[in-house]
UniProtKB/TrEMBL annotation:
Modified residues (N6-(pyridoxal phosphate)lysine): K235
Tree of life domain: Bacteria
Keyword field: Aminotransferase, Lyase, Pyridoxal phosphate, Transferase
GO molecular function: aromatic-L-amino-acid decarboxylase activity; pyridoxal phosphate binding; transaminase activity
InterPro entries: GrpII_AminoAcid_Decarb (IPR050477), PyrdxlP-dep_de-COase (IPR002129), PyrdxlP-dep_Trfase (IPR015424), PyrdxlP-dep_Trfase_major (IPR015421), PyrdxlP-dep_Trfase_small (IPR015422)
Keyword GTP-binding recorded: no
The keyword Transferase is assigned to this record: yes
Cofactor: pyridoxal 5'-phosphate
Alphabetical GO biological process terms: carboxylic acid metabolic process
The protein, known as: Aspartate aminotransferase family protein
Family stated for the protein in its record: Belongs to the group II decarboxylase family. Sphingosine-1-phosphate lyase subfamily.
Length: 484
């Protein structure tokens, strides 16, 4: 049988599309992806994803291989998090789903509370605010201390009879520091409230950091009062995307997470996660990665990532125009422009991109200025990064900060996004340089994003959200002529 000529065309188109994406290997993309540099492991994990892509985790009795691999992964994680023999876990599609389930389970464990709430530090990942929005749980957001860690006393004071969950981070995404889990968990336990530790980004780093002799604040199930922990396999577990673990101290704590329904004519639905159908691909990819890397491998990867983090932190400290927000507890760093430096961090991001480094900008929040955010991988070349950062800072100072027109800034601060229609959002998108590009006058991603980020930075959070939603909505519309 002759090969289908469409196959080569599809492969070529896939390669063409992927050429426009950020690189997922090489350690120069310091957000979204995490690179172990282990090509053989990556290749075998991709084989596993493909081999099990059609398997369905909906029914573990139909695909027992997936159940075996999931239980193996939970078992591997048990020693990492000081889990008791009673610890159980669930593989989810990612950190956000793990966080959502932690909130949903806490809510459903307390049917006696009609208007439930959760208490979180202002640095908690936005996934918990998403969970509160989805599940009708009121989020009580507590300011953090000057060290950017959750304030345990303020957290305790914020709890009341409606509280079903308290959250701490290990570490927080924005600043990379571990919250005082011991004190927060004790306060939660004193009120009979669940305490979840969001270790999605640190859970596959901190256990080995401790073994390497680094100081690590307590955050695991060894802390009394911690009832659940989330940690992602597709971050520093270096597994293919689509894999996170949600761990519970006991089966009884996990049980409200399950959804079951026999109230219809079809099969009795039984789900452990937000999904019903679950591809076996991510399960097999994660299992393969963990089996291949193993304990000693993760120890080495963690050593390399933390060493690179230390070198980058020292490099940032040596640049007069930048200030490290706080000493990192893990592999995340944030840096801001030094007062009076005449530096615009958004322009620094553009200059780094021109040198083939992705550095994530974080907009200002309250009295916290805009910052550069880095997630360092085992393959990140710290020396090359600092060299590029020095050049970028010098270029950004020479260019000067982006200045938003005062009239535009005033309009943005006074704007009520609820009053805008599509035409109004188009005006904002065009003002930000995101609309009007190309021959058709449609959406356009400028090569440099500093002006866009500067405009968003002066806008209140609600306006930022509305503008970005409008932008995503415009992006997510198929072309009139159909796909190529």
């Amino acid at each position: 049988m002759s090969p289908d000529p469409r196959a080569d065309a599809v492969r070529a188109r896939l390669a063409e599309l992927q050429a426009g994406d950020l690189p997922v290997h090489g350690g120069r993309t310091l957000a979204y992806v995490y690179d172990s540099g282990l090509a053989e492991v990556d290749a075998l994990a991709r084989e596993a994803v493909a081999a099990f892509a059609g398997s369905n985790g909906l029914d573990p009795t139909a695909f027992p291989s997936l159940l075996t691999m999931e239980n193996d992964l939970v078992g591997f994680a048990r020693t990492m998090v000081d889990g008791p023999d009673t610890m159980v876990g669930t593989l989810t599609s990612g950190g956000t789903e793990s966080c959502l389930l932690a909130v949903q389970g806490a809510r459903d464990a307390r049917p006696d509370i009609s208007h439930p709430s959760l208490v979180v530090p202002e640095t908690v990942h936005a996934a918990f605010l998403k969970a509160a929005h989805y599940f009708g749980v009121r989020a009580v957001v507590v300011p953090v201390g000057e060290d950017h860690r959750a304030d345990a006393d303020a957290t305790a004071a914020a709890m009341d009879d409606s509280t079903v969950l308290v959250v701490a981070s290990a570490p927080s995404y924005a600043h990379g520091v571990v919250d005082p889990v011991t004190d927060i968990a004790a306060a939660a336990a004193a009120r009979g409230v669940r305490c979840h530790v969001d270790a999605c980004i640190g859970g596959w780093v901190l256990p080995w950091a401790a073994r390497l002799g680094r100081p690590v604040a307590p955050w695991t199930f060894a802390v009394d009062g911690v009832t659940s922990i989330s940690l992602d396999l597709h971050k520093y577990g270096y597994a293919p995307k689509g894999a996170s673990l949600l761990l519970h101290r006991t089966p009884a704590i996990r049980r409200p997470q399950y959804f079951a329904s026999a109230a219809w004519p079809g099969y009795t639905m039984l789900n452990a996660t937000m999904q019903s159908t679950r591809s076996g691909g991510p399960v097999a990819g994660a299992w393969t990665t963990v089996r291949m890397i193993g304990d000693d491998g993760y120890l080495d990867l963690t050593r390399r990532a933390l060493d690179a983090t230390d070198r980058i932190a020292d490099g940032i400290r040596s640049i007069d125009a930048l200030t490290l927000v706080v000493a990192p507890d893990s592999t995340l760093l944030a840096a801001v422009a030094a007062p009076g430096a005449g530096l615009d961090v958004f322009t620094v991001c553009d200059e780094m991109a021109a040198r083939d480094w992705l550095v994530q900008p974080q907009l200002s929040y309250g009295d916290q200025p805009a910052s550069l955010h880095l997630a360092v991988s085992a393959t990140t070349d710290a020396g090359a990064f600092i060299g590029a950062l020095r050049e970028s800072v010098d270029a950004a100072i020479a260019t000067g900060p982006v200045v938003v027109d005062p009239g535009v800034a005033e309009l943005l601060r006074a704007l009520d996004p609820a009053t805008l229609d599509d035409a109004g959002f188009d005006v904002l998108l065009e003002a930000g340089g995101l609309l009007g590009g190309g021959d058709d006058g449609g959406l356009a991603m400028p090569e440099r994003m500093a002006e866009v980020n500067a405009m968003l930075d002066v806008a209140p959070p609600r306006v930022r959200e509305a503008v970005l939603v409008a932008f995503l909505d415009r992006l997510s519309r198929p072309p009139i002529a159909g796909p190529r």
